[in-house]
Structures are given as C-alpha cells and as structure tokens.
Amino acid sequence: MKVGILTGGGDCPGLNPAIRGVVYRGLDFGFEFVGIQEGWRGLVKGIYEPLTLADVEEIHYQGGTVLGSSRTNPFKKEEDLQAVLENIQSAGFDAIVACGGEDTLGVAAKLYSQHNVPTVGVPKTMDNDLSLTDFTFGFDTAAMVGMEALDRLRDTARSHRRVMVLEVMGRHAGWVALYVGLAGGADYITLPEETLDVDAMVAHLSEVKARGKKYALVVASEGTEIPMDESEKTVDAFGHVNLSNRNVGEFLAEAIQEKTGWETRSAVVGHVHRGGSPTLFDRVLGQRVGVKAAEMVQAKDFGKMAALQGTSVVAVDIVEATGKLKTVPPELLEMVKTFRK
Ligand code: F6P
Prior knowledge:
The chain is an alpha/beta fold. Helix content is about 40%, strand content about 15%. The chain contains 12 helices and 11 strands. α1 (about 15-30) packs parallel to α10 (about 280-300), α6 (about 140-160) crosses α7 (about 175-185) and α8 packs across α9. The longest helix is centred in the middle third of the chain and has 22 residues, at about 140-160. About 50% of the residues are buried. 6-O-phosphono-beta-D-fructofuranose binds near residues 10, 125 and 127.
C-alpha cells in the first residue's frame, strides 16, 4: 500500500514521534510512505516527498513536524477540493494518515464520508480538546512549558511583592490553563468554560493579600471571555477567531491593579508552548497512536481516529471525535475552587 502522511493545523511536540510510529509499524506491513508537505496544502499543490525509515529514525525527540504544517481548508474552495481528489488519484495513495486537531481531522472525516477517500486520523493538539480521546499529544509538553513559566514568575512576583498574570494558550478549552494553574499553585485561574467574574477575582486576590501573602499568581486562558470590539476579530481558514490579539492577560492585569491598587504585570507564553522537545508522555503517546493508525490502515478501518482511552489505544469514529469540543467538565471547575484560599 502507498500511504501518504500529513500534519495539519498548529504544530505541537509529539507530531514527529507520531510520524515515526506510523512509519515503523507500516514497514511491518510492507507499506510505502510518502510525506505530504504542509498539511492539506500539500495535497492541494501536490507537494510530497518519499518518507523512509532513515527519515524518521531520529525524529522522536524533535519538536515541530518534519512534514511542515498549515491551516489549509480544502473545503473552502471547490477548485482546491478537486485538486486534492485528483492529486490523491494521480499519486496513487491507497490511504491518507492525517495528524491534526478538530480542523485537520474534520477535513479527513469529510473526505472519507463525502468522497470515499480512505483516511485515518491521528489526534494532536496542545489544546487537548478532541473528544473520545483522554489526552492528545502536545498537551503535556505545552502545559509543562506553562508550568515552568509560572514557577519563574513566582520568583519575580515574590521579590517585587506583585501580582503576575500568565496568559496561556488553549483556544476555547481551558485544559492548559487548568493544568498549569493547578501544577503551579496559582491563586486564581480563569477559563473559557466559566463566565469571567472580575469582581470575584479581585475580591479573592484582596483576601490573599489581607491574609499576609506578599504576591499572587493568576493563570488566564487565552479563551477567557472578555469584552471585545467585534471589528477587531480576525478568523482563520476554518472560521476560528484569533485569540492572541485579545490580550486577555493584559486586560486582567489592568483590572487587578486598578481595583486592588496591587502592582500587577502580565506575561504571555504564546507559541513558546509549542516548541521544544516532547516530554516522555508525548513521545510515547505520539508513537502509540501512530502505530495504531498504521494498524488501522492495514485493517482498512477508515474514517476512524486512533484514541487513548484509559490505558488503551483504540479506533474511534472520526466524525464523533471532531463533532464536539472536549472542554473542562463541571466537576473539575468545582475542584479548582478548593484551591482559592
Ligand atoms: O490550537 C493550537 C493553538 O496553539 C491554540 O492554542 C492557539 O489559539 C492557536 O493554536 C494559535 O494559532 P496560530 O499558530 O495560528 O497563531
């Protein structure tokens, strides 16, 4: 079988281990691999390169993706969709393994259901917001980077007797903010799943100060709802609002300083989350879901995604996995309140 692999959407650590897993297991079945460059754009433009054992052997510890990535949506223009279908035909692909989040895998799902393209999905995203999988690779590394940033901010916050607000990525799911805040002992965490109550946050920080603590840390998810001028909104090819230019951290820092009189600064982790060597967890998970994806191709189990459920990696329906975002559930939102002392 000739199998094309692509990585689409925002990159994250774990993509290279996943590619390695697909190729290593696929070689057991005698597959020939082709690396489709830059996500779905590679299939629109016909940019591919052979992908051999030598190409993937040493990539397990490298961040990013050796295949390149983009947020191309081939369903936006009919001519792009036709180009994808023709290129799949002319390149002779028997299957496409797509590594991505809800957008990239949403395209894989539609290609399968509407055009019978044999696709298999590999879930990746630092946001950890894909349904039917307990974790996605990229999340652990991204959250670890956030935790380290918070640990560093604690030192400077304590020295200067300040409040430090750390804005983290995660889009419309608060997983990264939740884990960074819990692991780093934040005094307050704001999440997209909860309506922002500035007065409650300010009141809590004032209590923290009143009980004698000389500094405080706030972790803010970039997806936290704050007032915003509609005209400033920009969207990507999949219609997602660009959240980084909303400056949630800065907004909260200004509100805290103004309402409490406590000197406050903000910092943003941004794309630093997505770089660097994948953690042990992401290296292993990436390779495990990659191996499963190759096994699914061999079994012709198309229109499915390899997912971590408990301690097993299983095949799940790709439409279901991408149909609804996995956000932070109420019980975890409730638990966070325990740490507001
Ligand atoms: O989906 C991953 C992610 O890092 C989000 O957390 C963030 O909102 C977005 O991508 C940033 O996208 P870009 O790399 O296009 O700026």
